[in-house]
Amino acid sequence: MLGITRRRFIQCSALAASVSSLLGSTSKDGPLPIGFSTLGCPAWDWYKILDFAKQHGFSAVELRGLQGTMDLPSCPEFAPERIEQSRKDIAARGLRISCVSSSANMHDTDPQKHEAQLADARKFIDLASGLGAPYVRVFGNKIVGERAGVVKNIAQSLRSLGEYSGPKNVTVVIESHGDFTDSSTLRGVLDGADSPHVALLWDAHHTFVSGREDPDFTVSQLGKYIRHTHLKDSIRKGDDIQYVLTGRGQVPVKRQVAALAGMDYTGSYSFEWEKVWHPELEEPEIAFPDYARVMREYLSAVGLNRRDNDRNTMAATGVQI
Predict the structure, then answer these.
(1) Considering the entire predicted model, what is its pTM?
(2) What is the dihedral of CA 149, 153, 159, 160, to 10 degrees?
(3) Following DSSP, what letter does each residue of 256-287 receive, concatenated?
(4) What digits encode the pLDDT tens for the residues 112-126?
(5) How many helices (H) and strands (E) does the chain have?
């Protein structure tokens, strides 16, 4: 180690440790930083969901409905007398709940309807807090009326929810969905909310297919807000979009993963297989393990590329490796 300063050695040692950690997270036998949404397994009960996730190398589950209901706070598994046991069920399998996804949308202009949506979101925030989940998903959904006014109103609604969720250690994430799939509109909402407890769920499919944005552009514009993500693949057939197994379609999922890794994303890469809305899709017993396999390849490739880049950096500093 002669010829380098102590400070440079410490910096490079830290770099090597971070590379080792990244590679370990994508090793063949370890759990991946991936999850799946329960939207993809509407018939499964609570224990089948958790057991399947553990057995197939997932580290997280996103809650979006359970056995036919989207009203998660009403499920027996999450009742006040049961929720602590459910939390233990999750921990016993080495899993976590990456996000609790509500149906609440913020676009209603009718005050009574809007307050009902906010109240629904608060119920989901309470549930997420009880489960130790970090995020609750809401929608902006529709642009109704003049765009600037809609953006302002939705930003104010998110700020209000953030004030409620912050003390409960929950962040409210607006999904890139519906009329909110372009970076400019989303940036306006998130900047306007101006809250440490409000962020973005990047549905990378929607910004590419509906927003027509390249993944690198979206991340360059919104990366500082991205806390959770949805990944899925599809092909276009005429005016229709048909979901397909990961890596078989026209969506650049691999580049989306690389864009996230490049910004040091630490959230879950969550598979949103929309089986509830599209029952003709492959069964979760097929789609979920397939996603895990493909993501292992994608994440390993990101790790190897980063390792090579960091080796070059360390060599340039004079550290022998």
Answers:
(1) 0.86
(2) 160
(3) HHHHHHHTT--S-EEE---TTT-TTSPPHHHH
(4) 999 999 999 999 999
(5) 10, 10
